[in-house]
Design brief:
This protein is about 25% helix and about 25% strand. It is of the alpha/beta class and about 270 residues long.
Length: about 270
């Protein structure tokens, strides 16, 4: 097991990538991706932007790193359109409320999460930024409101806690259900192309990215039979998240925001 300091170093060195893609928007689209790390909760946030228009999305922001993320957005000349959560986190407070208040972006989360946000998403809804879009795929089981966000050309998926690298999210609180999680991963994530990059919300072992094909073949939990997976998950005996009693109530309000108006996904 790597130390958190080592993990932070590895995540910091993870590629600051620019991708060229023609899917959905013609040749010449350029996607900017930054994988960002918060060490105390071993959390990843993901900044995606259309390099042409400067429109950006931030997936799973963390409250403590809002100053860093805001500074990066300004340095890169980006305009944050959405601060998006894959689910209602139990181990950290989301930064979506603070980003909404300081940058004027809109917050988004699954309608099934029971949380408040500007945009409440359902299965199949899309968030557009410049020439790109992210499709929300309902992937409950860790919580009832988990979403996986898939880029429009299916080249990458942001899986939250539903699918981790060689693991998955726990199912022993927040109305978790192992059988539901197993079905979600196999039906909504493992049906993506083998080459689709998997970017999870957390990593505790020094990994930064995987692929659907790798996880389908090598994930030690999700290669089990459904019954064996349920038995494993029901006997993990993991400690309670340290910040759960603070994080969950705050995240049900999408962080620290006070005035939220529900809207439908943008066109």
């Amino acid at each position: 097991m790597w130390s958190r300091a080592t993990i932070a170093t590895v995540a910091t060195l993870a590629a600051a990538r620019s991708f060229g893609t023609g899917a959905g928007g013609g040749e010449g689209r350029r996607l900017l991706l930054r994988q960002l790390f918060e060490a105390s909760s071993c959390s990843f946030s993901y900044l995606l932007a259309d390099a042409g228009s400067g429109d950006a999305v931030l997936i799973d922001p963390v409250l403590e790193t809002v100053p860093r993320d805001t500074r990066l957005l300004r340095e890169l000349g980006l305009r944050l359109r959405y601060a998006v959560n894959t689910h209602c986190h139990a181990d950290h407070v989301t930064g979506s409320g603070a980003l909404r208040r300081t940058l004027g972006c809109r917050s988004a989360i699954s309608r099934a999460s029971g949380a408040r946000a500007d945009i409440l998403l359902g299965d199949g809804d899309e968030l557009r930024f410049g020439a790109f879009s992210l499709q929300a795929r309902a992937s409950p089981g860790h919580t009832p409101g988990c979403l996986t966000f898939v880029l429009d050309d299916a080249s990458m998926a942001f899986t939250g806690d539903a699918l981790l690298i060689r693991g998955c999210g726990r199912t022993d609180f927040q109305q978790g259900c192992p059988r539901t999680l197993y079905r979600s991963v196999h039906e909504k994530i493992f049906t993506l192309p083998d080459s689709c990059l998997v970017y999870p919300a957390h990593d505790y072992s020094g990994h930064s990215v995987s692929t659907v094909g790798e996880e389908r073949r090598h994930n030690p939990r999700l290669t089990l039979s459904p019954d064996a997976f349920v038995t494993l998950m029901e006997n993990l005996q993991l400690p309670r998240p340290r910040l759960m009693d603070v994080a969950v109530p705050a995240n049900l309000r999408c962080g620290i925001q006070d005035d939220v108006t529900e809207t439908t996904p943008p066109p």
